[in-house]
Description:
- Residues 483-488 have low confidence and may be disordered.
- This protein is 34% helix and 21% strand.
- By secondary structure, it is of the alpha/beta class.
- The protein contains 16 helices and 23 strands.
- It has 3 domains: 2-216 and 409-473, Metallo-beta-lactamase, Chain A; 224-403, Rossmann fold; 489-530.
- The protein has helices spanning 61-64, 67-72, 83-113, 126-133, 224-237, 251-264, 281-292, 294-297, 300-307, 324-330, 351-358, 377-382, 413-420, 437-451, 489-507, 513-530, and strands spanning 2-7, 16-21, 24-30, 53-55, 78-82, 136-139, 145-148, 151-157, 165-173, 176-182, 205-209, 242-245, 275-279, 318-321, 337-341, 365-368, 387-390, 393-396, 400-403, 429-433, 455-456, 463-465, 470-473.
Amino acid sequence: MKLTFVGADHQVTGSCHYIQACGKNILVDCGMQQGANPFECCDIPVDEAKLDYVFLTHAHVDHSGNLPLLYAKGFRGNVYTTEASADLCSIMLRDCAHIQMQEAEWKNRKAKRHSGLEAVEPAYKMEDADGIIKRIVPCPYDDEIEISEGIKIKFTDVGHLLGSASIEVWLTEGDITKKIVFSGDIGNKHQPLIKDPAYTKNADYVVMESTYGDRFHTTDHPNYVENLAKVISDTFAKGGNVVIPSFAVGRTQEMLYFIRKIKEDNLVPDFPKFEVYVDSPLAVEATGVFQKNIHTCFDEEAMALVNKGINPLTFPGLKLAITSEESKQINFDDRPKVIISASGMCEAGRIRHHLKHNLWRPECTILFVGYQAAGTLGRVLVEGTNEVKLFGEIVEVRAQIKQLPGMSGHADKAGLIEWVTAFEKKPQRVFIVHGEDSVCNLFSECLKIEHGLNAYAPYSGTRVDLITNTVEYEASPVVVKKRTRAVSDVFARLLAAGQRLIAVIHKNEGGANKDLAKFADQINSLADKWDF
């Protein structure tokens, strides 16, 4: 019964944890890294084809984005997650694949213009996204689900995103049972639309995030509607646009919720009919998923509107840009407007085009409404850079760069402490992950010194024996080095195919001799064809 830390250890993105127990190989989350990460992540300890299950806390790409890559490398097990997360993954993972394929196409066009550059393959393709989506098993909140002999799980609403959950995992080997709780991302209280985090009563071990483990959002709960209305009013008075880089899932829907209220209460009186553009096909689809899951995920305030027949996510003047042509037309309209576009950290997507058209205009405002990871364009802008490079051109930053105070889907330090101290009995150990390097250390020390918890912030590669509560292998940080030459993407796919073949062979052990002989002949025939 072992737990190995793979991703988002002393860094914020790429969440991934590996459990080996009850004869099964399990991942909890399989996220994509975003921005600049200071440390290398270890490989998953087994070939992807040998993994049996994935337990997914929520649909954000830093927790789910590499699921199609698992499929591309041979994984054919089931992915267990909540019903709303399953709905969101069905659109988000296809969007991730689309981005991967677009970026590979762009690099290959560049390779044609520069002799000597090798063609690249996307990390995964649309068929990989479609394949993993078919492996997703939707689960209700609060039900204990038996996965296999000795393994049970339960999803608890943790209030971070529609469908987000902490996952309780019970592992039984012989007469020993251990319970591990994976927090996922713990939500901020009093968010619009979704419920506050629910707490868990007991655990032997806790693996918890620490994104804001070194800071507090604000002393008072901010009035998001009034603050947003002031930004819109001040910017429109100067003749500018309010450009909001926003995560397509979660934050965009919250912005629509606030703007509906702004319009209803006429909080921008000089521009009562202002238009709002949602320029993200993914955000439009995600909004539909929110509408589908209102009864299981919406909080009391949002449900009160629904029960009155009011759609909390729409209003007069809302425009949806789906096609690239509709997206381009937005910036040809000189009237002041609000533009909400993905991605939230400005790393990809249509938001970069809107930045190119608006960053150089002093009358405009770029309003950040979410966490900006180190190394992302969003983080660079928030930290006050004077210029950025977009599509090969230098663009001066003359627009106002602002953040909406207190706007976060993550609990702050107080919220994190409230969640972990809600356990009725202190866990044997609390593992601190999903935070920047210094934050993991500071929050771990805080829990030890101020709350008497046995807290520990592991680096990627650390392995723990859950039966004896001992660290079998304590990994040291491995600083990311600049790679001079990567292994061919196509050859990597070939290796992954070989690993899957080995896994299939092992799974057929004990089969009928006639079938195994036929299988062996087919493999040898294929090997003879390529053995030159």
